[in-house]
Queue: 4 jobs
Job 1
Amino acid sequence: MFLTLTLLRKGIPGKQWIGKYRRQRPVTWQMKRNMIKHLEREAENEYWISRPYMTEEQEAGHAAERRAENWLKIKEKSFSNFPEHKSITDHLSHLRITKTWSN
């Protein structure tokens, strides 16, 4: 049945490169070469990832000082937006509470 459908239809329905009944793309020597390059690159990455740069003892707390400095910078930057502190006398200075009624 599949053979007769293929013979009678004279082609693949829809887009020929996608779907359930798609046409298979032929494997060329460039595809093989690219796949080998990709696998070699992946093997080299796995090689370098498997060897750590620092030991666990060196890694523990190696960036604590830098992180503390960064946190202080962020904190100073956020507090720089606040207005200056004002006392209650600054707020109530317009009332002139020390002036007497009579001169």
Job 2
Amino acid sequence: MDATSKPHNIPPVMALYAEKHNIFQLMQARWICKHLSATYLCPQELVQSMLLRRAREAMASESEDEKIPNELWVALLEERLNDMDCVKLGWVLDGFPETRKQALLLQSVGIAPRHVVVLYAPDTVLVERNLGKLLDPLTLEVYHTTFDWPIDFTVQKRLVRPEGISEQATAKRLLESHRNIPGIIQTYQESHKAINADQPCVDVFAQALNFVLSCPCSDAPFTPRVLLLGPPGCGKNLQAALLAQKYGIVNVFFGDLLREKVAANTAVGDLIKPFFESGYPVSDSIALSVLKNRLAQKDCLTYGWVLHGFPHDVDQADLFKHMGFEPNRVFFLNLPTEVAMQRISQRATDPVSGERYHTIFKPPTEEEVHRRLRRNPKDAPRKVETKADFYSRQVTGLEEYYEDGIFLNADQDPYTIFEYIESCLVKPLPVMRA
């Protein structure tokens, strides 16, 4: 028996409701959302949302009986997934994509669902279910002549047949679905599960929920997603550079990402600049938007990445996880504060040559060079100590959050550290927890 077919404890209230109403795909998605406390999304909700910038454009297309372009659908969904409820809680998307082209467009912008549930049933069953639907125009509640007939006689009298569910229209939609489903399954070949919907609703829900709660596992890091955490001075920058150089993965330093936005005079950079000037941390919403845009680029998706400088605390780590870019290797580079102080506070730069020196490990050989050395204000002992104290207050929570984290002693030769990191990269990937 595979993990997705094992029995699951279904909440009694859910079971009674499902058996009573016997509603299928829509309620499967909604009950999964309720069970996981996730956000429910569907195409119609995207079109009708006045909070999305291009929703009016989509509504205009619908009002003129024009087909909404695939690119517009993807733009609406991408914008909606950036909202805090989707980032924080996760999401369940119902009824989209409908074609392989739409699925590939989603992948091209970095939207890759971890689990894809495909519900199927004989055409005769689907036609019977669809033709029996009736709508209460007052409450918009959907009923069924066979499975869910309302007890209230007043409700019975006002029921109407929804548009687009005639036998001919249903047959046309089924034919279109049969043409498109194989392509969609091919796109999500490694992450989908087909479930027979011609059985009690509670059983369909149990199978779908078990699948969604299952944890994908890979035997090799085809796309390494490495996260380096540690106090200032622990060598994250060097280790990231070595990994990027040897394995071709993308070196993503979060601090540089923000500075690049400011230097380029972008709209996001204008939002970041006041934080830099005031010395306060950049807000999580802006930070995550910048980070997501970078990790969703083709080089990161193709070759993998090594990230350092983010997250700073558990809240950011949780937001990062729900953004869809969860790391598959997390390294904690541990370093005593006094060693960090020695490493950072004693370093300086020659403003003429740009060469970096250290008064203990790499002192200049010429007196003239020594006299003109300048220290970065950020390397002042008090600022280094403040950063180290902040990290020490957050690291316990981060260690608990990343249970599969790998701990390293950073107070040793950097190439010894790199060799250990390499050895961990080639091990099988850990099982990712839901």
Job 3
Amino acid sequence: MTAKKGVIRRDKGKQGLGNKYHSIRRSLKARMGEASSLDGRWEIHKELQSSPRNSAPTRLHRRCFLTGRPGANYRYFGLSRHVPRETAHACLLPGPVKSSWQ
């Protein structure tokens, strides 16, 4: 089960924008915290909003490393729940044992 190629490509583009604008957004947010007046904070907020929408880190979605599946991902492995299960059933993962109560 794999995700559509266009969706994966779009998410990679968002990751690229996020990496490109990371330092800019971080410095603007630091300046906003140091601003003493409300008008100065408002100007910095306008600058922050002028950056591309897809450069915000909240627009990113964690996807499976192998299949590109967006849901049910293990952060530690970077894989969706299907991949470790399939590899365990194929005896490619050492350790897990399939249980049966029959």
Job 4
Amino acid sequence: MFSQTMVNLVSLLLPLSLFINIISLPLPARAISSCSGPCNTVDDCDGQLICINGRCNDDPDVGTHICGNSAPNGNNNCQPSGTLNCQGTSYTQYRCSPPVTSSTAAILTNNDFSQGGDGGAPSECDESFHNNSELIVALSTGWFNDKSRCGSLIRIMASNGRSVEAKVVDECDSVNGCDEEHAGQPPCRNNIVDASDAVWNELGLNKDVGEVDITWSMA
């Protein structure tokens, strides 16, 4: 009788022990895509978010502002950093640009990236001049983010429904200007995508217009 009782008890406990072992197994790691989600390592955060103080947040080295006001500095307002006087005219200087989103509003301008063109010095990313048949752009200082976007592709969307991918090769300086390095041009505004002829052509835009409202995102 005693042995039969033990057998019955074991038969009851065995499934229970297996169930406990199953539920005690570690759950597979799951990346957290939302801002401010808990994290321990950089791999816990999706996309361009990184782990800062145990929370997924924007990467300050990349310059994205996916998390809006939850960014480490808690402030995405881009304030002027000073003024530069150029031939009697004062130009606002910026070291920052508006937040980068999936549809970042910007102004498209035209730049000649070839030697002797209105771009002045060689492109900052590779210290080279470029043919204007290349799909290339220069970004305002804040978006250029100290060369962190060099070589990256961005997607530019025009209001006519056309879009194109272009490579970042240079900075549209929002701080300095009016000198030989900048071909005498004043500082860029902080929301400029300065594009080659090829980009304008692909978008079906007339570069003689000078400026066109567009949106862009990382490709």
